[in-house]
Design brief:
Blueprint lengths: L7 H11 L8 H14 L9 H13 L6 H7 L6 H10 L4 H12 L3 H8 L4 H14 L2 H4 L2 H6 L5 H12 L3 H12 L8 H9 L4 H11 L9 H4 L6 H10 L22 H4 L2 H9 L12 E5 L4 E8 L3 E5 L5 E5 L3 E6 L15 H12 L6
Antiparallel strand pairs: 1-2, 1-5, 2-3, 3-4
Helix pairs in contact: 1-2, 2-3, 5-6, 6-7, 6-8, 7-8, 8-11, 12-13, 12-14, 13-14, 16-19
The chain binds heme C.
Length: 369
């Protein structure tokens, strides 16, 4: 993130601070000021100042994942901090910050740390490494993913993450995956994730073919009046919330990204009937403030997401939580979508029993006390 270079007051204060004895200011505030200052000085020679180096080292140690953490490491190419950046890329692999950390590892020339983690025996870490690799898009890292797919001894979670990383974001490559499935060349235990990837494709042709290929959920879903009578298993529903992509767009029970409405107290707002409706037919009633927009720019690129407007700019929040701010002068057209941004047909990724469990879980989410 580029910083404004004209904050002369802060700069002067920072330079002053660099020359003061350590006891003059609370240590942490002093380090933070030094960090803000040197980030603004173009061409600052960190190696040339032992004091600044010490301040940076202390700052990074006590501000892991803090506001300036990645900026500092990137600006001064601090390769020795790669293990901390790796931890961030793994632990926050589902957030915009984790994505930034993954990309920084590649910039630092430390992409091999992600490869090593991907091939390690720790399944959780390997799964996250696959997600992080998809954020980087770096060809040398992406090239490792097929090896995981080919290794039947790896856990299905790790192979599923590798498959998503390879095909999830690339409608152009999804036709390739479709062909692999059709030819019977995809391992059976990956059919679940493949159907998710393909049925949620932005390419309607791919979605259509996938739907007939997997023939999932078609016609065998009991009507809502039947479903509401059933009692589900909320603990299982909580897991399904995470595995059936809900957390890509919703926060509940401390996990997930706030793209769609938060669901942490949804049981107070919607009864089971309404919960089923929200999942089965997202476009039937779109929550206020969460309408989708399609914004076309003058350079012909298209953004789809939730739009917040100021006098000069539009900020589009996209699925996954990444934001892009555009000057209104760059916008060519904008159109409110009739469809919800929530994917249609998510229930087709589940059996009826699983949907009942998921709704049982959502309906248990209530205000504490
Ligand atoms: C691609 C993003 C996305 C995914 C994935 C997604 N949702 Fe949504 N969801 C939204 C958006 C946006 C809204 C608000 C617009 C609307 O009402 O359709 C919404 C609305 C809802 C609502 C209504 C909330 C309210 O306050 O009225 C519920 C309930 C819900 N989603 C549940 C789920 C569940 C359960 C899953 C997983 C099976 C899921 N969503 C997956 C984006 C998503």
């Amino acid at each position: 993130m580029p910083l404004p270079r004209r904050c002369t007051a802060a700069l002067a204060a920072g330079v002053l601070v660099l020359s003061l004895p350590a006891s003059s200011l609370a240590d942490e505030a002093r380090d933070a000021l030094i960090v803000e200052t040197i980030l603004r000085i173009e061409g600052f020679d960190l190696q040339g100042s032992a004091k600044a180096q010490a301040a940076v080292a202390r700052y990074l140690k006590s501000n892991w994942a803090g506001e300036r953490y990645l900026d500092l490491i990137e600006r001064f190419t601090l390769k020795e901090e790669a293990p901390g950046v790796l931890r961030l890329a793994l632990e926050k692999s589902d957030t915009p910050m984790g994505a930034e950390a993954a990309a920084l590892l590649v910039t630092l020339g430390a992409g091999d740390l992600l490869i090593k983690t991907l091939h390690s025996e720790d399944d959780t870490r390997a799964t996250r490494a696959a997600v992080a690799i998809s954020h980087t898009g770096a060809p040398a890292l992406v090239a490792e993913l097929p090896k995981i797919l080919a290794d039947q001894s790896r856990a299905v979670a790790v192979r599923s993450a590798a498959l998503s990383a390879l095909y999830g974001k690339h409608p152009a490559k999804q036709a390739e995956l479709l062909a692999t499935v059709k030819a019977g060349k995809l391992a059976k235990d990956l059919h679940q994730i493949a159907s998710e990837i393909l049925m949620l494709s932005r390419d309607p042709g791919v979605r259509e073919e996938a739907r007939s290929l997997f023939a999932v959920g078609q016609g065998n879903f009991p009507p809502v009046v039947e479903l509401v009578k059933r009692k589900g298993n909320a603990a299982n529903g909580k897991q399904l919330f995470a595995t059936k992509t809900c957390l890509v767009c919703h926060q509940a029970g401390g996990v997930g990204i706030n793209f769609g409405p938060g669901l942490s107290e949804i049981g107070d707002k919607l009864d089971k009937n309404a919960l089923y409706q929200a999942i089965l037919e997202p476009s039937a009633g779109i929550s206020m403030g969460f309408e989708g927009w399609e914004v076309t720019l003058k350079d012909k690129s298209t953004l789809v997401g939730i739009v917040v407007e100021t006098d000069e700019d539009l900020t589009v929040t996209m699925i996954g939580g990444a934001k892009r701010t555009i000057n209104k002068g760059e916008v060519s057209t904008r159109k409110k979508l009739k469809q919800s941004l929530m994917y249609p047909g998510l229930h087709q990724l589940m059996t009826p029993d699983e949907l009942v469990d998921l709704v049982e879980y959502l309906s248990s989410l209530r205000k504490a006390g």
